[in-house]
Write a structure and sequence with these properties.
By secondary structure, the chain is mainly β. β20 and β21 form a beta hairpin. It has a single domain, classed as Distorted Sandwich (Beta-galactosidase, Chain A, domain 5), CATH 2.70.98.10. 42% of the residues are buried. The longest helix has 6 residues. The protein contains three helices and 25 strands. The mean pLDDT is 94. The chain is 5% helix and 45% strand. The N and C termini lie far apart (37 Å). The strands form six sheets. A nine-stranded antiparallel beta sheet has the order 8-9-10-11-25-21-20-14-18, with no helix packed on it.
Length: 304
């Protein structure tokens, strides 16, 4: 089983764990000597491949940057296949196809799919190429990129910049589809029915979960003006990633987090909700790959 890998360029150093979803569990901006991504406020457990629930995923969470799929959100069963929270591929062991000083290619097979993930660091940023191929039959799937920024970027405040999209707050009871006529970013429709500007975080003490639906472009910029730091996430193919979730957590979540976490998760996703693949299929939101069909996208993170 492959150990952790380190990729280094003139600007960034990225640490990747093929044994845990091929995730980027650490990213350092060498020019600024800053940790870009969040880490958890607890010592995470090893992932259990047989426990597909939300709690198990959280206990093994290490912050960083994960590929999420073939399911996004809650566990479910589709065509007799059990899909775990955020998909089996997010915590499974990936095979290292090739590895060099600044690039690694990983692969994973399961649930009728062959996935390939290439991570490259260079002087401009971190680039991730993802390809999914259906094997012997048509396969439905959802995907997301789960990128968590940490306190070195967030303190004392960040502003989130993105293009046009319908913005609204949601929680455990939804809404799980965009409300009728929500405002466009940077305004958002809150759970209590108010509309207010939501691009500054934290605008309140605890945190907030937002969806910006039906984006016109795949780009989010997170800017800390006090520290003169800014990073931009871009992705192509909004056919894949049409929405983005924004979760700002500020010392409220219990369990293994113990109310100590400060992070902002930027999650370009196939769907605007966390109900999972079965729910998305009922609503016609899932991507269907025919046998032998391949689809791909690129995501990147750059300093700006």
């Amino acid at each position: 089983m492959s150990r952790g890998l380190a990729l280094v360029s003139g600007r960034f150093a990225a640490c990747i764990d093929p044994r845990h979803g091929g995730e980027i569990f650490s990213l350092v901006d060498l020019d600024r000597a800053r940790h870009v991504l969040a880490g958890p406020p607890f010592s995470p457990e090893e992932p259990d491949p047989d426990d597909l629930g939300f709690e198990a995923w959280v206990r093994a969470y290490r912050g960083g940057w994960q590929f999420v799929g073939p399911n996004v959100g809650m566990p479910c069963v589709v065509n007799g296949e059990r899909h775990g929270f955020h998909g089996r591929a997010s915590t499974a062991s990936w095979k290292v196809e090739s590895a060099g000083p600044s690039e690694v290619v990983l692969s994973w097979q399961g649930q009728g799919l062959a996935l390939r993930r290439r991570v490259l660091v260079d002087s401009d940023g971190v680039y991730v190429d993802v390809a999914a191929r259906a094997l012997d039959a048509a396969v439905p799937l959802l995907v997301a990129e789960h990128i968590a920024f940490g306190v070195e970027l967030l303190d004392p405040e960040v502003t989130v910049e993105l293009g046009s999209g319908r913005a609204y707050e949601w929680g455990a009871d939804g809404p799980f589809a965009p409300p009728v006529d929500p405002p466009h970013w940077p305004d958002g429709l809150l759970l209590d029915g108010r509309i207010e500007r939501v691009d500054r975080m934290p605008e309140r003490a605890d945190g907030r979960l937002l969806t910006v639906a039906d984006l016109d472009a795949g780009c989010v910029r997170v800017r800390n003006r006090v520290r003169n730091l800014a990073y931009e996430i871009q992705w192509d193919g909004t056919e894949w990633l049409r929405h983005v979730w924004l979760w700002r957590e500020e010392h409220t979540v219990g369990g293994p987090w113990r109310g100590r976490a400060s992070l902002l998760v930027i999650e370009p996703a196939s769907v605007p909700h966390d109900r999972g693949l079965a729910h998305a299929l009922e609503r016609g939101e899932a991507r269907l790959l025919e046998a032998g069909e391949t689809a791909s996208y690129r995501a990147s993170l750059r300093a700006v």
